[in-house]
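Write out this protein's structure.
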Amino acid sequence: MEFKESKSIYQQIADYLYENILLKKWKENERIPSVREIAVMLEVNPNTALRSFLILEERGIIFNKRGVGYFVSENGYKKTCEVVKEEFLNKELPEVFRTLKLLNISIDEVKTLYEQYK
């Protein structure tokens, strides 16, 4: 995984966890890779990976079965959608709008590209 300078590593790992849930690679009530497995896979410190897991756990997206591992919560997919949507609408979309305005790109141009993307 290529980490960006603009966002902390633990937040980018949380985004990776969100993405796997949204892509349904990890389904509700299924075990997800351990903190150690994620840390090795992404080549980060296990404490950094753990911080990401704790964020998702606090939001009720994943839960820990002591001695077994982390699992996607019942409604974990729905909660992930809500969290990621809110972040997109409040943080990323305003930047997109700003760029559209600076480049004088109309919403109709965006709509045409969006239709091609679907």
